[in-house]
Amino acid sequence: MSRRLSSSAPNRPPNRSKVGASRRQAVMPVIAARSPSPPAQLATKPRSLVPKKRVHPLKPKVKGIRVAGAIALIILLSGGIAGCGWLALQLIVNPQSSGWVNQWFPGWLPSRGAEHPPKTLQAIRAELRSQGKTTGELLELGQNVSFMDDRTPATDLLLPVLEQRPNCQTDCDQIVELRLYQMAIDGKTATSEPLYSLVDQLAIAGPEESFAIAPLVDAKSDNQGSSRALPLTSVTRYDLPSAQGVWLNLGGKRDRGNETLAYGQIIHYNPSRFHLSKKLQWTSPTGENPIWKEVTGGGSPELIINHTIGMEPQFEIYQIKPLNFLPSPVQLEPISLSESVLPQSAYQSALLLARGGLWSTSLKWLESLKRKLPAKDWSSTAQAQLDLIRWHAQVTQVQAESSWASPSQQVLANLIDGRWERALQVFQSSVVASHETADVLKADGGALENRIKAFGQTGSDKLEVRAWGALLLTAQKGQPAAIAWLKKQPKVTAAEIAQITALTKRLDPAFTENTLTSNSSRMIGTVQPLAQMNPADWSFPSGKEPLQADQQSWYQVTVTAFHTGDRWQSDTFSNLPTTAIALWKRLGLDTTPTLQLVTWQPNGEAQTVLAAIQAVRLQGDRLQLLVSGDASTGSSKPASHALAITESALQWLSPDVVSLGHWMQRQPKWTAKAIPALTQELQQAIALPTGTDLETLASHWTIQLANLTGSTQPDVILTLQPDDLTTLNPSLGRSPQSSPWTQPRTLIFSSSGKLLYSELSVEKGQHYRAISDLGNPLPTLVVDSPKQYKLVQWSTKRQQFE
Prior knowledge:
Elements: H1 21-34, H2 63-77, H3 82-93, H4 101-104, H5 121-130, E1 133-135, E2 139-145, E3 153-164, E4 173-188, E5 194-203, H6 209-212, E6 234-237, E7 246-256, E8 259-270, E9 275-284, E10 291-293, E11 302-306, E12 315-322, E13 330-334, H7 345-355, H8 359-372, H9 380-401, H10 407-416, H11 420-427, H12 431-442, H13 447-457, H14 463-477, H15 479-487, H16 494-504, H17 509-515, E14 523-529, E15 552-563, E16 568-570, H18 580-586, E17 594-600, E18 606-619, E19 622-630, E20 642-645, E21 651-653, E22 656-659, H19 660-666, H20 668-686, H21 694-697, E23 702-706, E24 715-720, H22 722-728, E25 745-749, E26 755-758, E27 767-773, E28 780-784, E29 789-792, E30 794-795, E31 800-801
Antiparallel strand pairs: 1-3, 2-3, 3-4, 4-5, 6-7, 7-8, 8-9, 10-11, 11-12, 12-13, 14-15, 14-20, 15-16, 15-19, 17-18, 17-20, 18-19, 21-27, 22-23, 23-24, 24-25, 25-26, 27-28, 28-29, 30-31
Helix pairs in contact: 1-2, 1-3, 2-3, 7-8, 7-13, 8-9, 9-10, 10-11, 10-12, 12-14, 12-17, 13-14, 14-15, 14-16
């Protein structure tokens, strides 16, 4: 809460704590009853109360109001008549109009402008620099009246105050204060620089780390985050013309593993009282900032914060509600589903379903009940709850109706949306679908279990829901536990138990081994030679000849991706069968037991040798193959770092090749943007001499043209050979052969000239090798990284190759 709301500020009058908001409200009817026609000054009610004298950093801004109320109460209690009543009202509404009170009570009423005289922006920044602080850009908050006289038009301006974080290397500035300024009336220096008056200021500290990461952390985890405040680095204004004041967002970002989460605070500015206040702190595991959107149809926007993780939607929606506090008369109140606002049992059951995650089912029940009830019985709070549920249901419905690469993802999307029958259909559609679904069920942390329980608590009986309850228990605790649970269910029949028991058998590994059919093998991996080979470390199917360890050259292939028959699966292979026979079939090795081992020469030419797949092993998420070559043919041995592919794994693409000089003549706009970017990359990477005419030197280089990003025009692939780099900087030619500049370097530019990929900087250490077609909408780059070969594609969402 803002420091202005503190109840422990020092230097307060002895009787101040007794003069609260409730007493001020009690005084008003008395004044109204006793006052005759007020003087003319009362006809124009002042808009603001701006205490300017800040005796202590924690001194409440409402001091003038409370003190004025105290004086008003003293006057009334002393038997003042109608004139005194009018004076008391003036002291409450406009304490600045009665400055003579300060003669009796020095310091009790604030004096505008006395504490902070107007200054130029340059002087403000200089003063902050002397305190080790800097400023951000001035942000206009809108037109207002001057806080000095409540009449003269003025513009409210927000100035963020920044301070560097300790022990920080990059992006170190954080916002530590917000200051509200107005341009001083007729305030200009001799040089015509405007003067700015400080109107309000608000100390800023970011949310604690434990709060920011809470949505991503398991409640049972030992790593719940620290209490240190995370930095807030940006401030933006929401454009909300009818949202009762000005709303601001202070934001920050934090990387956690492969995820980037966003966090921040919502700030409100009340122009009529020149008051800044903190309203809410927020966090979003999706990395999205809060948005304002009208959800409930009440004519006012709501604040929406996205807490979604994976496929589980979770949103917080806040409404603007009145607050009995004059400087900031609004608050953000969340729409809650914890309490039923209607007495009907159907309404209560619908909320129970929503709390369990069955958003679409809950929405159907609520909409049905709303149609049956008279309009007067359906309250605005009930409508808000329905709209919150609809917001979630829209997400789960889209997911369930989308096409998913994995059968298990399709099953999960249908379960999340409460489509029990459809999920069972996908589960039974293939052996692979059943096998992959078993891993989804094992990994369930309670979300699916909560849905099953919520549906059961409504008193509804549904065979498909019971089937999923039994499947979940089978995956996590075994089939006996599932059957025991099933028999305890009310009104369950023997036929239903038999039907569900048959479904649970699809989760048995033996079922996968016996019914799995072979696919044509499509695999990609990275080859490394094995100095020693121990047959006991590997698994191979029965009937295969014994391994001749002394007559072969042995290689280990770490699989990067393989095709399951309907999709490519990468990196994580924990859902594969564990037995040798089933794994051999799943990978298609019984039909395609050979690999091509590909290496690239410095000039870009590819060389290929064949090797036989002898065995396989699965260690956690890592899938590896044991391959062999004839030890007698030493010339055909692959390099120590090669690409391994099965024959049908990739379809190589051949981009068009043109000279860069010809392309620059045809595309002057591309040249104007790409050449400066290329120059900057070369200056940073190889110290390109200043003044180098790169456009002329590069005219004889060749480029490849390929549509990698889905644009209507081709993207440009520029591969710089070591000789090209030596020409640009002859000192590179004196480097030893182990120099990194002995390898080609590739840069990729968009059709507009924007740099998308650079092995001179961001992608340094990687080597572009080729372009392939994997059957996806966009081509795939084959990239050689220090540890393994990777397949990367352009991400339209993240605007990068990944």
